[in-house]
Amino acid sequence: MYTNILVPQDGSPASASILPYVTHLARNLGARMTLLTVLEPAPPSRRAAETEGQGQAEAHAALRRQAEGCRDTGTEVTPLWSRAGPPRRLCAGRGGATRT
Question: What are the structural domains of the chain?
Answer without folding.
Answer: 4-99 (3.40.50.620)
